[in-house]
Every structure is written in C-alpha cells, then in structure tokens.
Design goal:
about 300 residues; mainly alpha
Length: about 300
C-alpha cells in the first residue's frame, strides 16, 4: 500500500470513521475498540472496576464474534498507560510514587500484550488482514454517528464485531456510540480546561520551582514522566521512584495537587450539567449492561 494511503486509513480508524475501506490493509492493526469507555472521573459514578468489567465483556464479545468467522482476536489492555489514567495532571500519591515510580512494570505488561496483538496481525497474509479489518470494523458506510462537542461529526460502521459487541452489551449500539464518543471527548476537554486555568498554571510554576530544588529542571509533570520513561538503563525503575517521589512531594507542597483536583471536579461538574442528557444516557446504558457483563466475565454481583 502507498504510504499516503496507509496513513489516511490509519487516521480514519483512529478517529472512529466507518469501516474498512478499499485499497488494502494498513501496516498495523487498529486499536482494540474504536470507542473507549469514558473515564470514571467524568462518567458520573461507576467504579473503575465496573469500567474494567464492561471493557472485558466487550473484549469477550468481540473475540467470540471474530472466532465465528475463523479469525483470531487478541484482547489488549483497556488502559495502555495506567499511570496516566490515575495521575493525568501530576503524580501526587507519595506512597504510590515510592513503590511504583511511573508504573513502568504495568506499562511493560500492557506493551507486551499490545505487541503480541500487533505481531499476530502483521503475520497474517494480506488477504487475511483485509478480512480481519472487515470482520472487526464492518465494511459498509457509517451507520453510527455522533455530533462532537468540539464541532463536526464522527462515524463508524454499524456492521462488524465491534458494533455487534456494543449492541449485545448495551442493547442500543447507536445510542452507545453517540454518548460514549461525546463523553470521551468531554473527558479530554475537562483535562484541557483544567490545565489552562490560571490557578493551575500558577501552581505548576510553584511546582517547577520546587522540582528545581529537588534537582529536576522540567516544564511540567508529564514532561518529567516522559523523560524518565525514555531512559532504559538497568537502574531505570530506581530513577523513576526518585523522580516520582520528588514530583509527589512538590505536588503537595506547591498546591498543584489541590488545584488540579478541585479544578478537575469543578470542570467535570460543569460539563455534566451542560451535557446532562449524554451523561445520563451513558450511565443508564452502562448500568443496564453490568448484569450482562458479569455473566460474560464470570464476576459475581
């Protein structure tokens, strides 16, 4: 496949656009599911265990659907970078930082699972790659659409194993696709609003000053995390723990942790009020899906 065509198809898959298109398979498989579950921080209740349970149930449904077509689906972790979900702004749990650093072990485990799925896909003959994409995403046009809070629409085929899993689990694939895409986007908006708030910016400057006194010169917490994780030496985890511990101490002493949590909660509440219908519908569909998910995964109520 020409490089431009591969890039365009990859972008379409990543953005949740409809189905597999003509022109051959991309060089790597798409994400495991086109619509991740909304983060618990903005989803209006729903414990993380419930979010994970629903994701596991989706994975089982997709796996079985693909198997019925003679294809293998290898589930991958819901959160490839679990530390970023736990600490989207700054690591501020001192005990966790001292024990885990930047979650390198959990990241490594997730990477291994994702790599295994990618290697399986790349090892398929081109015709089987094409069949895999069609089975997973569906071949026809959008079918499912969502109007984004930021403007524009996104779409996804209503055929294929991903859509079938949504239908079986949530009972209404169209409603689920719409509200999950909207609330997922609002989750990102909430984080951006928090990071742009003057109170957060001022606290981050105090955090930077504190970190300089600890021997770390970085513009922001995520930049420090990225720099640390790029290092692959034998002492990487020990270095991670040292940096993360300093980050957590400074997050608390600078007020960055307090500002981030309070602003995050306020921005989340404001978005929930503004998009109450979407959040309420998502919560209703998730709650109704939990018994089905428990039956699939085998988790007691």
């Amino acid at each position: 496949m020409p490089p431009v065509a591969a890039v365009l198809l990859g972008m379409a898959l990543a953005s949740g656009c409809a189905g597999a298109t003509a022109g051959g398979p991309p060089p790597a498989p798409p994400p495991p599911l086109s619509v991740p579950l909304p983060s618990p921080a903005l989803s209006g209740g729903g414990a993380v265990s419930d979010v994970d349970l629903l994701y596991q149930a989706e994975q089982i449904l997709v796996r079985d659907c693909m198997a019925r077509q003679g294809l293998t689906y290898r589930p991958t972790p819901r959160t490839p970078v679990p530390d970023m979900e736990r600490f989207p702004y700054v690591v501020d749990d001192l005990e966790w930082a001292q024990a885990n650093g930047y979650g390198r072990a959990a990241r490594r485990k997730a990477e291994q699972s994702t790599t295994a799925a990618a290697n399986y896909y790349r090892g398929l003959p081109p015709a089987r790659q094409r069949a895999w994409l069609i089975a997973f995403h569906g071949e026809r046009g959008p079918g499912l659409e969502a109007q984004m809070p930021t403007g524009g629409k996104v779409g996804h085929s209503d055929k294929g194993c991903a859509a079938q899993a949504w239908q079986e689990l949530y009972g209404d694939m169209r409603q689920w696709y719409r509200v999950s895409r909207v609330t997922q986007t609002l989750d990102s908006m909430r984080v951006a609003q928090t990071q742009q708030n003057p109170r957060y910016v001022a606290a981050r400057e105090r955090w930077r000053e504190c970190m300089r006194s600890e021997g770390f010169s970085v513009p922001a917490p995520v930049a420090l995390r990225g720099r640390q994780l790029a290092y692959r030496g034998a002492d990487a985890e020990a270095r991670d723990r040292k940096a993360a511990t300093a980050e957590a101490k400074c997050a608390l002493s600078s007020g960055l942790s307090k500002a981030a949590h309070e602003l995050d909660a306020a921005n989340g509440a404001a978005l929930r009020r503004r998009y109450r219908s979407e959040f309420d519908t998502a919560e209703r569909l998730r709650t109704a899906a939990l018994p089905r998910a428990r039956a699939l995964v085998g988790t007691p109520p």
